[in-house]
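Hey, quick one: can you model this chain's 3D structure?
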Amino acid sequence: MTTNKLCALFLILGLAFQTAAGQEASPEVKSGELSPELKQNALALLSEVAREITQYNVPENRIRTGTMIADLMWEHDERTARATYEKVFGELQTMFANMREPEEGMSTTERNEYFSRRDTLAQLRYQYVVTLARHDKQAASTALEALKTKLLQDYDPLQPAKLELQLASIMAARDPDKAYALARSQLAAEGIAYEFITTLKDLHTKDPRLAATLGGDVLAKIRGAKIRVPSAAGNSARPAPSPAPGAQAEIDLWQVGAFINAASEINRRADREKEKKTPPLFSDAEMRELVELAVRAYLAEPNPSAPSIGPLMPEILQHAPALAPRIRVKVGPKAARDLDTITESASYLNVALKEKTIEQLAEDAIRAAPSMRNQRYADIIQKALEQNEPEKAQALAARITDREGYAFLFERIRIALPIAKAKRGDAAEVRKMLATLKTDQERIGTLIELASSLAAKGEAEKAKKLLEEALALVMQHPINYTGVEAASRISALYAAVEPESAFIIAETGIEQMNKHIRAAILLDEFYDYGSTVSGELLFESANRVALRHVPNSMTLLKHLARADFKRTVKLADRFERSDIRLLLRLRIAQAVLDSKANEKEKQMVEKAECEDEMH
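Sure thing. Here's the predicted structure for all 615 residues.
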């Protein structure tokens, strides 16, 4: 049955290619610019969606969609956008007011559900505050101050410190003084957190002198604090306690080490940007003082953990080399040998791998210890693949002696080579390599990349032929996850070079998707996975599924909307569920109005993939 439907779709598409071959692409598609008419249509659609979100029964859905709508509307109608933000703020306040402390005697299931609600509320607050901060940083700061609740003694996702520091990072671009004030208050309250270091780096990019002042505040805090060093027996799991009033503050050694490494990174960047006259965060004397403070605390611990000082050793050797022998004596001969390995790895991972070129790293790998050489080459190969340089990766792979242990890396190179050539539009080379690929999935991916490259060069007819070939391969297999993703990528390219075919794929595909959605929701409700509440599909659940299966929907919807806006909006009406129709209408408006929609979607896809890997 599935095969028959796919064959029918293939025949329909074949007819579409013949009938659409002589059609002219609209001027909007050719120019790639947003016409006044298209902009007006998208804003009208956004206004409709803003009125329709009241049909959502679940507050979480109203908050997520309302925040997106206000964000999209701000540039075009600030007054309405502010009113929408205020409505969302009211919803959030109600949710915070209803969030109680956990009750005594909760079962494990009830506690999990309770913390899940707090986590969801933290996500909603984060989305609201960060989105509002792009437009009005003071309003975002005021909102965050109001959206707080009594915190739990243990870990609490509603702890605002991280969000306050992120808000400071956002402010660094336009209001460095405000960013500094926020970061300084967080330093006093929370110490040297990861987010604080991120804020410091952002502030140095915008205002190096103000960042240096903040760095001085940290140095002063470290001078007056007790640095807690983990012992070899192990006390590193305990966080530094909040000091009693008037008591000496405590800072963990790893926090001091992370700060020193960040300061060193900022200084190296400033040194590379001498032509910009960017001042460093710290002078050499200040760096030496920081390192000496950490080392003295380490040497004062009766039985310190050797690995805890390892990440700091490169900075110790640079700024206070006379202290290195004392550390080696302190830890003993065996631990000192282990420390040498940790030191070398820290220097390599924190500096060389990040800042050196592939060629420089390859030279260093030749001089690495034999036991480390294969891993060094593997790290460089990973970097080459990330930089879309599979040919360099292939040359380096020949130096790896453990062929079996690094087989996964050779497989990655094999898959990446034709993709890279396809991205460069090397059609002749790609044709040669297609026959050597092991699976249709690899062939489909390579054909799509080559079609994308040719389409970008204006060779639409060649691109269409490659898309036909890729689609034919897709339809030789039953519908599954990879098939849906491949079809969505093909549709997105068709939308750019031949919109009629993309419309047919989308319209026909939605009929099949309705059946899958019905089945998926029944299964979700049967197993109580939590994607629906009182029969309403949660926006976040629907969005995650869309990111997995149609990871380039913004490109697809943008090109379709430019070709025929009304027909694109009608695609939403083909879905059976009203909550999905509303989601798609919002995404159409987003694809048209948000110039960074593709970039944001890519970031969300990467985040979803990372979360999936963690689970």
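One thing worth noting: DSSP finds 31 helices and four strands in the chain.
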